[in-house]
């Protein structure tokens, strides 16, 4: 009976995650951190059991990285952050008059990679598990090393690394102020402030005469929606038949490689896997279609692996993905916690068994794919047209901003809200000016929470 109850929670929450984020993937520019993380946090705070939280999150990332290919290929605008590396290849296929082929290859590659990534990521996590105690004991220094590595591998490179120092000190200062006022530290508000940093920065820039010039547009943006072309019979084609043998093997190989890594930027891995397994194809058309499959497959496999490996093996968010969209699975006080002094965890790492990660992870991903793949193959044109004509992007962003404000007030009242806005403004400007993306900033938060006290104790 207990297993049946767990299965029902997993299935119901996976359905919810797949539907919500399958639709959100259609809206261009909906950053994963600013959307998946707050809703996952809300699910946790509402008291959903761990297996339901996990299934919701896994279905969300699988679904969003299927439907984010729709605006990317049909409209020529990235569906979210990880769709950006697909944009150039998609645009070239649009110019060749075959955007429907680009869409078909991209989402079929995502299906194949997602199904490969779950079991492989669990396997690699089990290989690392015997070393988890040793890793946890040096957690403060691992976070410091990971922050440096992720910063240097980001677009900002050394500028991002240098900017990380004052950012960490600002977090330490704000945390000390909040502790003095409230008698307790904050964590959720810092996390949410970083997540919506670019939005806060743009709002403040818009209030300044100088900044308004940077954001000013002479006319509304216009988009050309590609034609709806269907070349199959029935509900949807088999993804294994959409990809040819070479594309299937390239996508599978990229999924295997990216499922074994968890410390590198997902965007960088997407570009690297595309160039490694698709860039050497000489025929131009086949190279472009192969790159669509391999790159979108890598967006699925990196997100899955960078969540599962640190979650199962260590319990600490030691990856860009774990430090960003997946962070609530690791640290969502008072439900899931990480002890700032010892690195001791009380989160999904402790609450679920490895077989549960495998079984319920696969269930969630399969549910998401069964919902979004046929939808994307058959309704992409109609859905993209409706979204662009009827749905206000500003309204969606406003809804998430309201949700974030409510959660901050829940954690620490006006003080927490001020902290979120302050850290969001600083982080958003660092993102815009120095390319210090949210993954780097989240690692900076953990450096402030874990490494700075350890350094103080070392020299104290």
UniProtKB/TrEMBL annotation:
<feature type="transmembrane region" description="Helical">
    <location>
        <begin position="107"/>
        <end position="128"/>
    </location>
</feature>
<keyword id="KW-1133">Transmembrane helix</keyword>
<feature type="transmembrane region" description="Helical">
    <location>
        <begin position="134"/>
        <end position="153"/>
    </location>
</feature>
<keyword id="KW-0812">Transmembrane</keyword>
<feature type="transmembrane region" description="Helical">
    <location>
        <begin position="6"/>
        <end position="27"/>
    </location>
</feature>
<feature type="transmembrane region" description="Helical">
    <location>
        <begin position="39"/>
        <end position="63"/>
    </location>
</feature>
<dbReference type="Pfam" id="PF01970">
    <property type="entry name" value="TctA"/>
</dbReference>
<feature type="transmembrane region" description="Helical">
    <location>
        <begin position="186"/>
        <end position="207"/>
    </location>
</feature>
<feature type="transmembrane region" description="Helical">
    <location>
        <begin position="160"/>
        <end position="180"/>
    </location>
</feature>
<feature type="transmembrane region" description="Helical">
    <location>
        <begin position="442"/>
        <end position="459"/>
    </location>
</feature>
<dbReference type="InterPro" id="IPR002823">
    <property type="entry name" value="DUF112_TM"/>
</dbReference>
<feature type="transmembrane region" description="Helical">
    <location>
        <begin position="397"/>
        <end position="430"/>
    </location>
</feature>
<keyword id="KW-0472">Membrane</keyword>
<feature type="transmembrane region" description="Helical">
    <location>
        <begin position="69"/>
        <end position="87"/>
    </location>
</feature>
<protein>
    <submittedName>
        <fullName>Membrane protein</fullName>
    </submittedName>
</protein>
<feature type="transmembrane region" description="Helical">
    <location>
        <begin position="355"/>
        <end position="376"/>
    </location>
</feature>
<feature type="domain" description="DUF112">
    <location>
        <begin position="12"/>
        <end position="433"/>
    </location>
</feature>
């Amino acid at each position: 009976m207990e297993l049946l109850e767990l299965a029902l929670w997993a299935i119901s929450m996976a359905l919810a995650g797949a539907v919500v984020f399958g639709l959100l993937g259609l809206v261009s520019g909906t950053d994963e951190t600013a959307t998946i993380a707050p809703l996952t946090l809300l699910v946790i705070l509402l008291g959903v059991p761990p297996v339901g939280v996990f299934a919701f999150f896994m279905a969300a990332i699988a679904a969003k990285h299927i439907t984010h290919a729709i605006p990317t290929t049909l409209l020529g605008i990235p569906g979210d952050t990880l769709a950006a590396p697909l944009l150039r290849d998609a645009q070239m296929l649009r110019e060749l008059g075959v955007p429907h082929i680009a869409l078909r290859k991209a989402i079929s590659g995502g299906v194949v990679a997602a199904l490969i990534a779950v079991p492989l990521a669990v396997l690699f996590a089990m290989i690392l598990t015997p070393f988890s105690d040793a890793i946890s004991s040096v957690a403060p220094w691992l976070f410091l090393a990971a922050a440096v590595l992720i910063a240097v591998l980001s677009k900002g490179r050394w500028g991002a690394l240098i900017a990380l120092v004052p950012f960490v000190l600002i977090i330490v200062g704000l945390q000390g102020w909040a502790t003095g006022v409230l008698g307790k530290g904050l964590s959720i508000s810092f996390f949410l402030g970083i997540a919506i940093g670019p939005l806060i920065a743009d709002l403040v820039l818009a209030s300044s005469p100088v900044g308004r010039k940077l954001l000013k547009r002479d006319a509304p943006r216009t988009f050309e929606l590609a034609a709806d072309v269907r070349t199959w019979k029935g509900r949807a084609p088999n993804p294994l038949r959409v990809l040819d043998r070479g594309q299937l093997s390239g996508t599978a190989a990229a999924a295997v490689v990216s499922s074994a890594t968890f410390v590198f930027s997902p965007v960088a891995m997407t570009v690297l896997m595309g160039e490694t397994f698709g860039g050497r194809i000489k025929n131009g058309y086949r190279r472009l279609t192969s790159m669509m499959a391999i790159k979108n497959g890598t967006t699925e496999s990196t997100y899955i692996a960078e969540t599962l490996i640190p979650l199962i093996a260590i319990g600490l968010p030691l990856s860009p993905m774990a430090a960003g969209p997946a962070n609530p699975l690791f640290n969502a006080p008072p439900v899931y916690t990480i002890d700032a002094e010892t690195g001791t965890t009380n989160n999904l790492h402790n609450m679920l068994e490895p077989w549960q990660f495998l079984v319920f992870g696969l269930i969630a991903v399969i549910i998401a794919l069964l919902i979004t793949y046929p939808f994307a193959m058959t309704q992409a044109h109609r859905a993209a047209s409706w979204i662009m004509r009827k749905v206000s992007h500003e309204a969606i962003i406003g809804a998430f901003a309201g949700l974030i404000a409510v959660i901050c007030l829940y954690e620490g009242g006006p003080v927490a809200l001020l902290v979120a806005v302050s850290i969001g403004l600083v982080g958003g400007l660092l993102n815009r000016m120095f390319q210090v993306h949210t993954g780097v900033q989240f690692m900076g938060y953990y450096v402030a929470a874990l490494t700075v006290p350890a350094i103080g104790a070392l020299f104290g």
